[in-house]
Specification:
There is one protein chain. The chain has 122 residues and is α+β, with helices and mostly antiparallel strands. The chain has one domain. The chain is 23% helix and 41% strand. Strand 1 and strand 2 form a beta hairpin. The longest helix has 18 residues.
């Protein structure tokens, strides 16, 4: 199967999951009992730049300790993700290497990469 077609299929799977839950949370930072901040995929599409696989828009939400939304950032925080080595997340024109050995939940870039690039294939 051509790589572009496989990328599109995986992307559509992740988009359909995101649509089912409004926004697909890929990373949450907890601040004890005082609250949390979640990063979600608000939009996504195959990357325009052939060096990357996905272009996404990230949304930030802050919650209090009880789960009530305190703040939802409606800004368009755009990023590009490359799945194949070297794994990268690009914000504006800066490339950030993704540590594939990072534990889930410890680095938002790893969690974004994992949400898009390690989807199971049946």
């Amino acid at each position: 199967m051509p790589r572009a077609l496989l990328t599109l299929i995986l992307f559509l799977q992740s988009v359909s999951l995101a649509a089912a839950s409004e926004f697909s949370v890929f990373h949450t930072a907890l601040f004890g009992s005082s609250g949390s901040v979640s990063l979600s995929l608000a939009e996504g599409r195959p990357a325009r730049n052939p060096a990357f696989d996905f272009d996404v828009v990230i949304m930030l939400s802050e919650f209090d300790g009880g789960g009530t939304v305190l703040y939802r950032d409606r800004g368009k925080h755009e990023a590009s993700v490359r799945c194949n080595p070297p794994a990268l997340v690009r914000i504006n024109s800066a490339d950030y290497a993704v540590d594939l050995a990072a534990r889930p939940g410890t680095d938002w870039k790893h969690d974004l990469w994992a949400a898009l690039c390690s989807a199971p294939v049946s």
